[in-house]
Amino acid sequence: MNNRQALRAIIRKDIRSVTSSVQLWLPMLIVPLIIGIIVPTALIWAASSMNLRSINNINVILETLNKAMQGGQMPSLAGMTTDNQRIVYYLGLYMFAPLFLIIPVMASSILTANSFAGEKERKTLEGLLFTPMSMETLFTGKVLAALIPSILLSWITFILYGIIANILMYPLFDKLMFPNVNWIILILWVVPTCSLAVILLNVLISAKVRGFQEAYQLGGLVVLPLLGLIAGQATGMLMIGPWMLLGTGAVMLIISCILLRLVTVWNRRQQLAESQI
Questions:
Q1: Measured between alpha carbons, how far is 173 from 165 in angstroms, rounded to an integer?
Q2: Can you give the pTM of this predicted structure?
Q3: pLDDT digits over 187-208, tens only?
Q4: Do the Cβ atoms of 142 and 10 come closer than 8 Å?
Q5: 8 Cβ contact partners less than 8 Å away, ≥ 6 residues apart
Q6: Which DSSP category does 105 fall into?
Q7: Could you count the other beta carbons within 10 Å of the beta carbon of residue 79?
Q8: In this predicted model, which residue has the larger pLDDT, 211 or 265?
Q9: 205-233 pLDDT, tens per residue?
Q10: 263 Rama sector, left if φ>0, alpha if ψ -120 to 50, beta otherwise
Q11: How many CA within 13 A on the CB side of residue 42?
Q12: Please, which contacts does 173-182 make with residues 24 or more away whose CB atoms are closer than 8 Å?
């Protein structure tokens, strides 16, 4: 078996191990469904159809949007005549964008925690280590087995969200509003680089710990910085723009390079074999 065949075999094996377990694949579907479809749909529909002046604290949000417009962060608000348009525009094109980073992070954490840690629990890691494939092929297969589904899941959720957002926003604006530049950069640049960084970190953790739960809990700490980003965007304290997204993706790529170096240095065949004992 050559390296290419071995690589495909590892990817198929890892993906099959996830799809065969309801406890693994069900959260990967429920989370995107809630944060990518149900919650945005409900809030955009409510903002487009309700009398916003009857909602408490709505003036605070409108003042935040006006400041963002005056500061040049959301110039499109200047041409909008109603509060419903402004709120819907903010929700559909800005508010929910950071939430979409949770999808690849969550999926990557589950998939990579199931890689080496899952192999240890199933007592199958030793068999992999004694095959003639190189460690480079083994790690590449593990990374791709998590990266490909994570990105595909994010892209599918993005497409579904875009269809729903345009359906709900079209009656207010008489044109298709989604996606804007921010969303395109987020999906095509930030999501892949963020997924890669999270996967490499979780592969590193998964190779060191002894079980799936331990690996998943440690890898899940990556979500904490995202919560601050989401809070900043939701409160208007931080309006994410194209340059910030480009910079975020670049930082994630640099972190990935550092983690890749650590993975290759710290995870040797003998070390992995000893960690299973």
A1: 12
A2: 0.81
A3: 999 899 988 888 888 777 766 6
A4: yes
A5: none
A6: H
A7: 9
A8: 265
A9: 766 665 555 555 655 566 666 666 666 55
A10: alpha
A11: 6
A12: 173/85, 173/89, 177/89, 177/92, 177/93, 178/92, 178/93, 179/93, 180/93, 181/242, 182/93, 182/94, 182/97, 182/240, 182/241, 182/242, 182/245
Quote the CA–CA distance of 11 and 204 in Å, as a whole number. Answer: 18
pLDDT band at 267 (very low <50, low <70, confident <90, very high): low
CB of 216 within 8 A of CB of 121?
A: no
Nearest to 185 by CA among 266, 272, 93: 93
C-beta separation of 90 from 239 below 8 A: no
- In the prediction, which pLDDT does 2 show? 65
Q: How far is CA 58 from CA 100, 104, 145, 172, in A?
A: 25, 32, 45, 19
Q: What's the CA angle centered on 24, arms 3 and 201, to 5 degrees?
A: 55
129 touches 273 (CB < 8 A)? yes
Compute CA 231 distance to the chain's CA centroid, rounded to the nearest angstrom. Answer: 16
The total number of residues shown for the chain amounts to 277
* 101 or 206, higher pLDDT: 101
Which residues, including other chains, have CB under 8 Å from residue 80's CB and lie 6 or more apart? 86, 89
Q: Is 35 helix (H, G, I), strand (E, B) or coil?
A: helix
Q: Which of 153, 144, 146, 165 is nearest to 103 (CA)?
A: 153
Contacts of 189 (CB under 8 A, 6+ apart): 245, 246, 249
In one-letter notation, the amino acid at residue 246 is L
- In contact, 14 and 147? CB cutoff 8 Å: no
Residues whose CB falls within 8 Å of the CB of residue 144, separated by 6 or more in sequence, listed in order: 7, 11
Task: Give the pLDDT band of residue 12 (cuts 50, 70, 90).
Answer: confident
Instruction: Assess whether the previous peptide bond of 179 is cis (omega < 30° from 0).
Output: yes
